[in-house]
């Protein structure tokens, strides 16, 4: 597996492996751009200038103050920065990879204490990175999907205590997982609601029993979750597994999609996560060495070796057929009015930070969504789901200056997203040279720091640190 490009080696030698200090945001005017508005029934491009001050977009209709830096956009397209609603960050080294891909906000889906610290440092300008939103540690019960970094709860008392501990630590978002017992899930739901915490994640199934899902129903029916106030259900394949009991039934999927739409719960399809599993199977493991994997955390790569081995030998035709149904199911969700958001599951398996979101957008288009709908899934829809409509997600005065400058129009060709001319993150203008430096820095890892991050996370949830084998 290729580990480092020449730029990463140079950065390591120069001691530049860390994301840059952000410092105070500057004031600047981006002139001569075509501003992309995704808020209406159809996308609109209009000529204009955008003034940025103190990390915010301000009204540029009046006289521009003296001393403001002027940047010629040369007729390029300016749009809101992208949001990746499902990532796994193990260390700050990966932050640059997200910015290099135009991702200016991420929602981390498996929290550790270091994520709260990173979020504060980025917001304060001490560290350059995408705005970081995080859940607490994943709440799960013992079972086939349990992982070492999950916070295990089985009883109602354990579940309530875990939610209270996460709240006390500073987390305000809960992520639940599929093995949760009915008792634990009910307590999580009640305690989160009492504390004003939001809930997202895999749909909890209850204790897994032999014969599930085809011969034995789940302990927790999927329909029972629809009035529980989830912000998002994660992964189309999870919805098919739980909601359809893994039956690839088009009519049943449409009926289920209609009920999800009525519930108001958004769905994060993460098609790219299953696509990458399939590509590993199709290439007999060759996909694991493609360009970009050097930005995956080496500790994660070591832990994923059993999964790499499994998927290298998986049944290609069966999984290819499953993936085609997942794409169809995603299109049906959109057709029935479900709000879709874009997430990549980057940072686990072989899901590369940053660029995996662009891959996800391409797969959403392949599934049948219009480019307008695809772009909204990474901008406006996440803002609405996060309760931040009017604050982020558009190019408008009064919104956070998270922007993406492109050489072409993404409503005509999504591939222009793969090489941004510049990115504005929290008011910091990053040109192509800086974006290349940030991407290279994401390939230079501090394994000892990553170990400390994980160990601190396990200690915070009273987990068995020795089980990690560090």
TrEMBL record:
Family matches, as Pfam families: Amidohydro_1
Q: Which GO terms describe its molecular function?
A: hydrolase activity, acting on carbon-nitrogen (but not peptide) bonds
Q: What does the record list as coiled-coil region(s)?
A: none
**What is this protein's record name?**
Uncharacterized protein
Native organism? Croceicoccus naphthovorans
User: What is the organism lineage in this UniProt record?
Assistant: Bacteria, Pseudomonadati, Pseudomonadota, Alphaproteobacteria, Sphingomonadales
């Amino acid at each position: 597996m290729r580990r480092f490009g020449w730029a990463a080696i140079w950065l390591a030698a120069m001691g530049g492996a860390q994301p840059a200090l952000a410092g105070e945001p500057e004031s600047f005017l981006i002139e001569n751009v075509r501003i992309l508005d995704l808020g209406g029934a159809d996308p609109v491009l209009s000529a204009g200038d955008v003034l940025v001050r103190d990390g915010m977009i301000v009204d540029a209709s009046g006289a521009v103050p003296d001393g403001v830096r002027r940047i010629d956009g040369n007729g390029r397209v300016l749009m809101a920065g992208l949001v990746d609603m499902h990532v796994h960050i193990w260390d700050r080294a990966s932050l640059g990879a997200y910015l290099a891909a135009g991702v200016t906000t991420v929602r981390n889906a498996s929290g550790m204490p270091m994520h709260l610290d990173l979020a504060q440092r980025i917001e304060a300008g001490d560290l350059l990175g995408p705005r970081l939103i995080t859940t607490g540690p994943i709440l799960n019960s013992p079972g086939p999907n349990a992982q070492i970094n999950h916070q295990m709860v089985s009883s109602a008392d354990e579940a309530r205590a875990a939610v209270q501990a996460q709240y006390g630590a500073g987390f305000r978002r809960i992520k639940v997982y599929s093995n949760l017992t009915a008792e634990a899930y009910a307590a999580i739901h009640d305690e989160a609601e009492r504390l004003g915490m939001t809930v997202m994640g895999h749909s909890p199934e209850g204790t897994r029993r032999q014969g599930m899902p085809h011969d034995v129903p789940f302990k927790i029916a999927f329909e029972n979750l629809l009035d529980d106030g989830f912000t998002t259900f994660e992964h189309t394949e999870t919805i098919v597994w739980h909601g359809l009991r893994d039956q690839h039934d088009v009519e049943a999927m449409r009926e289920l999609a209609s009920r999800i739409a009525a519930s108001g719960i958004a769905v994060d399809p993460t098609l790219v996560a299953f696509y990458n599993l399939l590509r590993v199977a199709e290439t007999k493991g060759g996909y694991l060495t493609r360009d970009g994997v050097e930005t995956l955390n080496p500790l994660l790569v070591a832990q994923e070796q059993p999964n790499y081995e499994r998927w290298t030998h998986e049944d290609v035709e069966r999984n290819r057929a499953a993936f085609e149904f997942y794409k169809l199911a995603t299109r049906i969700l959109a057709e029935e009015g479900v709000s879709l958001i874009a997430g990549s599951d980057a940072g686990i398996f072989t899901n590369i930070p940053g660029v995996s979101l662009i891959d996800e957008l391409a797969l959403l288009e392949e599934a049948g969504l219009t480019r307008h709908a695809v772009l909204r899934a990474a901008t406006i829809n996440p803002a609405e789901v996060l309760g931040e409509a009017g604050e982020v997600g558009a190019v408008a005065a009064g919104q956070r200056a998270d922007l993406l400058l492109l050489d072409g129009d993404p409503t005509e060709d999504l591939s222009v997203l793969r090489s941004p001319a510049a990115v504005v993150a929290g008011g910091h203008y990053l040109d192509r040279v800086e974006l290349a430096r940030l991407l290279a820095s994401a390939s230079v890892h501090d394994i000892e720091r990553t170990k400390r991050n994980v160990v601190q996370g396990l200690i915070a949830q009273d987990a068995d640190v020795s089980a990690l084998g560090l």
